[in-house]
Amino acid sequence: MTTSARQLLLEYGLEPHKGLGQNFLLDRGALGRIVAAAEIQPGDRVLEIGPGLGVLTRALAEAGASVVAVELDRGLVGLLQDKLADLAQVRIIHQDILKADIGQLAGGAPYKVVANLPYNITSAALRHALEAAPRPALLVVMVQKEVAQRIVAEPGEMSLLAVSVQFYGRPRVMAHVPAGSFYPRPKVDSSILRIETFPALDIPEPDIPRFFALARAGFAQRRKQLRNTLSKGLNLPADAVEEKLRRCDIDPQRRAETLTLPEWKRLLREL
Ligand code: SAM
Q1: Which of 53, 55, 72 is the best mutation target for the ligand 1 pocket, counting ligand atoms within 8 Å of the beta carbon and taking the most?
Q2: Which three-class secondary structure string do you get for the chain?
Q3: Pocket mutation for ligand 1, best pick of 9, 12, 49, 127 (most atoms within 8 Å of C-beta)
Q4: Fewest 10 Å CB contacts: which of 18, 69, 87, 265?
Q5: Overall fold of domain 205-270
Q6: Fold classified for 2-197
């Protein structure tokens, strides 16, 4: 498999581009696990980020999905157009996913986002997909193992990344995929992460930026007490912050990493 990925690239005069996070998936088993985690049904609409050499794109299409695949590397776009020409339900778009209107490209709800994400834009791509309008119903993404673990963290070990994902949906690690399953071999192992998004958010859309401003302020100095980090980050007197925290039944000495999602939301309403 390594040989065939390398040969295919050679045939098109290409080399794996490190800056674009190009680690191509070789392991058929892992490929099958991604498609299974995405529960692809005939007729499903899938937006794929970074199709690369098209192996996942083909597997999704063969499971019955219509796939819009967004690839930034112009050389790979040419290769994909050749290699996937037999699949009428696949559309290749040459674009930076971070600049793409994901909801529009997907052709409206419901749709799923499936990707072996380039490691260098993991957080940005996840955020961009979760903020899309309409939002995907499901995301199944391959990410670095440590990143997956951070995303599914529980109160006590929360981070801004965990809050940002868990605000929109329920993340679950489906499988681990060792570094040797990719060409070129990355330095770290990966995991398949499945995020089922909530059909509706309990914070009105216009308040979402305020929610994230609050969480960002809380995590800006994550080892410090909330009373102080929020006072600094939100430019409010510490006493006023303390009172609001107490009104939400949150001890002002707690740290951002200990808060649950309902506590963040309560605090937003109070502030
Ligand atoms: N899906 C393929 C696979 O599983 O073998 C390739 C995955 S590789 C980890 C990531 C892919 O994302 C590469 O093809 C890379 O060129 C592409 N990519 C990187 N940055 C991108 C961006 N901003 N927008 C779209 N595609 C991007």
Answers
A1: 72
A2: CHHHHHHHHHHCCCCCCHHHCCCEECCHHHHHHHHHHCCCCCCCEEEEECCCCCHHHHHHHHCCCEEEEEECCHHHHHHHHHHCCCCCCEEEEECCHHHCCHHHHHCCCCCEEEEECCHHHHHHHHHHHHCCCCCCCEEEEEEEHHHHHHHCCCCCCCCHHHHHHHCCEEEEEEEEECHHHEECCCCCCEEEEEEEECCCCCCCHHHHHHHHHHHHHHHCCCCCEHHHHHHHHHCCCHHHHHHHHHHCCCCCCCEHHHCCHHHHHHHHHHC
A3: 49
A4: 18
A5: Helicase, Ruva Protein; domain 3 (1.10.8)
A6: Rossmann fold (3.40.50)
Q: pLDDT tens string for the chain (271 positions)?
A: 566 899 999 999 999 999 999 999 999 999 999 999 999 999 999 999 999 999 999 999 999 999 999 999 999 999 999 999 999 999 999 999 999 999 999 998 899 999 999 999 999 999 999 999 999 999 999 999 999 999 999 999 999 999 999 999 999 999 999 999 999 999 999 999 999 999 999 899 999 999 999 999 999 987 899 999 999 999 999 999 999 999 999 999 999 999 999 999 999 999 8
Determine the Cα–Cα distance for residues 162 and 45; give it in Å rounded to an integer: 27
CATH 1.10.8.100 location in the chain: 205-270
CATH 3.40.50.150 domain residues, the chain: 2-197
